[in-house]
Specification:
It is built from four helices and twelve strands; from the N terminus they run αβαβββαβββββαβββ. The chain is α+β, with helices and mostly antiparallel strands. The termini are far apart.
Length: about 240
């Protein structure tokens, strides 16, 4: 007599499902490996590009460069970087010293002979730079130098044995900085320039500082007095450094 137990057959394991799971896991691993490889390659290109740009700017000073946007590989392939952020504590351009340089460059071609799409930047012209610029491009009363007092720009000198401070109101005018006298301080006395005859103030009015040394395409959009000098804000399109 045949029992029910003798009719039982061992069950076969679901091999197809196990194989399918194996293929799915393998595919996921391959895809993740490719993604990681692309990201790693992009970061390497990003680093080398930043280093190349910094090296290209070394004649002007030590700059920190950040290529923004992802991926950089496709930007390089297109021949143009979307955005580059450059900062420098000190920089020199055309023998003019700047400090606290902060520049954002947009549509930056990988071919350095082509102009940069757009540049927005700020930098400080130290008092010593202002003195040198006015000596070369303007005429100031003898013995006067720039200084900052209480957050305002002044020309400083001496008259009749007392400290002379001439308040300066700077304005941006294209590729020029125009400064006008606003007040005169002699010792403890304060005099409004507008109350004085023109022949007495002509030497300290409409002083023009020519900034034609700036890269072609850049213009001044704003000027602000700081403790270190004058902070200039620059903007331009089609800018070339050469």
């Amino acid at each position: 007599m045949t029992s029910a137990r003798t009719l039982e057959y061992p069950q076969q394991p679901p091999r197809r499902r196990s194989r399918r799971k194996t293929w799915i896991v393998s595919a996921i691993v391959i895809v993740l490996t490719l993604i990681i490889g692309v990201i790693a390659a992009d970061r390497i290109v990003d680093f080398t590009t930043e280093q190349r740009i910094a090296d290209g700017l070394s004649d002007y000073g030590d700059a920190d460069v950040s290529v923004e946007g992802f991926p950089v590989l496709t930007q390089m392939a297109s021949g143009k970087l979307d955005s580059v952020h450059i900062t420098a504590d000190e920089a020199t351009y055309e023998d003019v010293d700047f400090t606290d340089v902060d520049a954002k460059l947009y549509d930056v071609p990988t071919d350095t002979s082509r102009p940069i799409g757009t540049v927005d930047a700020t930098a400080v012209l130290p008092h010593s730079t202002l003195d040198a610029l006015t000596s070369d491009h303007a005429s100031l009363p003898a013995g006067m130098t720039f200084t900052t007092e209480d957050g305002e720009l002044f020309l400083k000198g001496s008259l009749l044995g007392q400290d002379l401070l001439i308040g300066i109101d700077p304005k941006a005018d294209g590729r020029r900085a125009v400064v006008d006298a606003s007040e005169i301080r002699l010792g403890s006395a304060h005099v409004d320039v507008d109350s004085l005859p023109g022949f007495l103030t002509s030497a300290i009015s409409d002083i023009v500082i020519d900034l034609d040394f700036l890269p072609a395409g850049l213009e001044l959009t704003d000027i602000t007095a700081t403790e270190a000098g004058l902070q200039v804000r620059l903007h331009g399109s089609g800018v070339t450094l050469e």
